[in-house]
UniProtKB/TrEMBL annotation:
CDD domains: 7tm_classA_rhodopsin-like
Gene Ontology terms: cellular component: dendrite; plasma membrane; synapse
Assigned keywords, A-Z: Cell membrane, G-protein coupled receptor, Glycoprotein, Membrane, Neuropeptide, Receptor, Transducer, Transmembrane, Transmembrane helix
Originating species: Acipenser ruthenus
Gene3D superfamilies in the cross-refs: Rhodopsin 7-helix transmembrane proteins
The protein's name: Neuropeptides capa receptor
TM region(s), chain numbering: 6-22, 34-53, 88-109, 130-151, 183-206, 247-271, 277-298
Membrane topology category: Multi-pass membrane protein
Amino acid sequence: MVSLAIAIILGNVITLTVFLQTRQFRTPQGYLKMSLALADMMVGMLVAPFSIYTEILLMVTSSPPAWYQGSEGVSSGGLLGPWQPCKLIGPVFAGCTFVSISTIFLMTVERSVAILKPLHKDTMVTRHRTLLLITLSWTASFLLAMAPLILSDAFTLEYNECSRMCNYTPLWKDRLPPPNGNIMLLFPVFDFTLLGGTLVVNILSFSSIRRYSRKRKLLAEGGSGGGIHNWCTHRPSFSDIKAAKTIGILTFAFTASFTPIATFVLGNVVGYQWCNFSFFAFWILTSSSCCNVIIYSVRDQRFRKGVALLFRRGPAPPPGEKS
């Protein structure tokens, strides 16, 4: 847990620093990547350390803390009950997860515009619109994360002994669920809707890239024609194609890490516990917060150059001499 938290924080701090210091990343795509890195960094700074703290507390004390599963401090639901740390950590983890999903969706849409409408990408995807969408993404994600506590008193947040994290927990146990007991289904509905939309947009983008590759091969083989000549003036750039492939890899990696937790949420709503499975599901999702910097390092030459410049320690230039 400790090494994972350190890796998440360091990786995303490096990512944010490179993006902020490199002028080339001050683009709509760069802002979206910074939003994703910020959400991942919050997981590393708040969620994972709190789990580490609770585990250490359980080892050194004889009684569990007030936020531990089954304690009196988590016996009441909604926002009106006594405050305990899980009422902060739980929504932060859920909110950051929703931010990651919505940001990956926005990144996919942004790249699809560059692939499908290369002549219109600068007018359709602007910095102002991107920043507005990022703000809406964060606001909607955290409102959704708080929805089970705001709209229902049938759920509480507690530190789960299985997942080793703060989880939403139903309070009805062996009784029939209340009318608003299915509100947790909003989580997988939101998640799978955006992930499904991301998949569809990726399919459209990669279909266009495939057609482009075929036409480029035809040109290389000596094909000619007015249609091909006109197409050449509207083709996507190589950097747009590579960025689309990188985002496709990001989408695949996040979907693979997110699917177990989505399955757990669905099972939890219908009454299954899945203790061992929940531990791996939550921590697989958490570990994905340090994957993006690895993907950027492998796929993005500008990012690698930015990291190299960040850690390069050369002699300071003499006064009056440009570096």
